Amino acid sequence: METNQDEESSVPQHFMPQPFLPQTSVPPQLFNGPQFMSPPNCPQFMPPPHVPSLADDEQPRLVGLCILNFGGVIVWNVRLYFNVYVLLFCLLCSRMQMSGLPCESSHSSSDVLFTPQVKDELVPKIHQEFDNLDDVHKFYNNYAKESGFGTRSSSSRKNRQDVIIRKEFCCSKEGVGVELMTEQSSRCRGISRRGCGAKIAVVKRGEKYIVTQFVEGHNHPLTSPRRVHLLRSHRKVSSAKKALAESLSAVNMPSCQQMSLFEMQSGGAEHVGFLQQDLYNVERDRRKSIVGHDADMLYEYFQMEKEKNVSFTFAVERDDEGRMTHCFWADATARKSYQYFGDVVVFDTTYNTNRYSLIFAPILGVNHHRQTTLFGCAFLSDETTESFEWLFKVWLKAMPADPPRMIITDQDPAMTKAIARTMPTTHHRSTFFETDVIVLHLSFY
After folding, report:
1. What does DSSP say about strands 164-171 and 151-158: parallel, antiparallel, or unpaired?
2. Where are the beta strands (DSSP E) in 218-340?
3. 20 to 30 Å CA-CA from 252: which of 47, 99, 151, 347?
4. Are 345 and 406 in contact (CB under 8 A)?
5. DSSP 3-state of 231
6. pLDDT in tens, 247-276
7. Are 343 and 441 in contact (CB under 8 A)?
């Protein structure tokens, strides 16, 4: 006992309260104990000077306090992370419900229903009245666009007066689809029909159509708002954009550039309202509408050009069935150019169109700048002598000068006979190189 008192009295009094560390921290005396060992290849930790060692009976108590404090910190962190995970899970569930993800489930995946989450005024209701079927389809299609699915017309029923008394509009994935995949085709298109039962049914009662059935759930995931414009029922080219696309096609702007223009004008592809394929379909329908009337449209166009400029001339020949066989035209510029540079003429029929099987026959020359100039154009149904004679007669009649001094063609015997009959004073040469044409043309000056 005396020894312990002497040891305690030998410690300075100002080290006893340990003011350099808080009370909750581990005392620096623990660093002197045998339980803390320095790792190899590391400098030995030196304790602060004049720090006394703890007694053996106080070390277990301090170690227990440290373990208790460390355990409290761990429990607090676990509770914090648990609360964060619960909050994230709640946000995810609410997001899934708003995006129309599964709201009802069962043991089989086919019983999973996806209910759209839209405004209440957009949802069809039983006993809701409409004036006509167009209003029904417009309302249901607008609801489908906000929900994220496509629509199409389904079954209908008529009475004896051929009036529709019952009509159904359903989801575009209604019915059972068959995947068409052959050995020759390497592209798998997938299945577009999944047996979805979402639909709306209306019945005619008096002058109104009343909603009698409305199925809201879908058995397939709904389309996101950023991709709903790709569905077929929500794509439509308006009349104004059709007219603009037709004007852009008239100046040879391709459909891909037209689509870029519409996207920039509308503020994004999702706001255009149609795809590039829809522009191709509009052009296809326009061409299909003029089938059988294109010759009449060409004749009307020539008449309009004749009214604008009296110097414009044209000639059209038809067969017994009223079909156009030969056509020739020349504007004021071509006629005036022939008056000054019509001494040497090049005639060739190498351009052939596949759609109408008509032969394009341009009549060309060279001006004083050694540039190609046009003296007239023609469409011929064949390359016979009679066709060439008709063309040369009409062309010479339209030109304001005498026949040319020389004409250069290919080695076609039918063309040679026609030139000899219609232009007997003209020298005929069978070559079509541009350098020869320029030399022959300059030799007359």
Report:
1. antiparallel
2. 313-318, 324-330
3. 347
4. yes
5. coil
6. 888 888 888 899 999 988 888 888 888 888
7. yes
